[in-house]
Design a protein that fits this description.
Length: about 290
Amino acid sequence: MIAAAQADILLLQGIDSDAGGATAGALAGVLAERGLAYPHHLSLPVNSGVPTGHDIDGDGISTGPRDAHGYGWFTGQGGMMLLSRFPVEAVRDFSSFLWADLPDSSAALVTPDEALDVLRLHSVAAWDVAVLVNGRPFHILASHASTPVFDGPEDRNGLRNADELRFWSLYLDGWSPNGAAFSSPDFALMGTLNVDPERGEGQRETLRNLLAHRALQDPRPTRADGGTATADWTDPVPGDLRVDYILPSANLAVGAARVLWPDGTEPDDLGEAVETPSDHRLVFVDIDF
């Protein structure tokens, strides 16, 4: 699947993170054997599976997977990894940012009081990665937001997902969780945002506001059949939804935008290859930079 995409910069989601970066190195090695050189890779600690020490979900225990900063049975489960043909110049890691510290946060509505000073906003991770493309910095704003389901009528996961998306809107508006405000002209917001703008669960208006942000453009990648869904989920509920995004900055020239979801008519049938690793599909956008 990765060989078919031939991406210059690849953001992988749902891949376990380890302290020494062994997974990233091993994967890069396997891809090199297939003729895909990704000499630069980034695999930072993530929030999934990291204990908070508090009973977040109210089930009477504080050691379950839903009591972690992000859902996970072990530290690093379902993390995030960046592979690049271009060198990584700098990284801003926002993964430790507290949910309660986000302006107008919903954290206090759905979080035990004793956990407000501990619980992080991002259930997996959030990075601003500057990659040097022919000597010019290009920023990858990488994110994996909470799944806005698996909660109760309080909509805890939905509210958290919305705040994770608002984090990026605020960041693009000049607010910064730490350090200098973001001012780079060339970038792309990439990741699993876990909300479809039209269907399914989640605070869809928050996603629509992000998609319509003046600093971004939405190339609306399409499948072979013309659809925009990126995840193959059980029909009819939740059904196939668009939850994975690449949103380049508005100033960039964008070419092809595809979801790697073959319909069986391609010369080399990729159907089994794309179905095996995940129920999500690879999304790619060609950017003239």
